[in-house]
Give the backbone structure.
Amino acid sequence: RGLRQAERNAEDGISFIQTTEGYLDSTTSVLQRIRELAIQSANGIYTIEDRMQIQVEVSQLVDEIDRVASQGQFNKLNMLTGRFANPELGGIPLASMWFHIGPNMDQREIAYVGTMTAKGLGLRDQNDNIVSLSTISLANKLLGQVDKALEKVTKQRADLGASQNRLEFSAKQLLNTYEN
């Protein structure tokens, strides 16, 4: 029975990862739109008023990243607010996500989910102000910030994908061991 529970734990871990991946997919789409707007605003043909209108959409999109991060939950656990971030990278010590995928003590694996809020992605400053693209220079700078944010989200998605593959193999192996 311990093998069967460990297999179910692995399946639960897969569900956790797939749910997190869904939220990160939304974040990626929002970041791509912000990037598109930064490229538009970096073009010299736009007036200050034009950039102000673009800023309105960017501000709404940054708020959407925070909404996804704050409401992205699995079993009432917020996944994207840094609760499961690697402590070596600024996460909360002992708050990582453990998946107990074996029938015995210490047969578990760890998964980290970084802080995917607007501040964590560099789209809000220390004073919680949203990044600006009110000038060509600031729009160009925002482009670099969004590229770094996309890199962080993409790396997180790759790490989770690797963990999911491992959990899938573990679940199959546990079920095979149980049947044998």
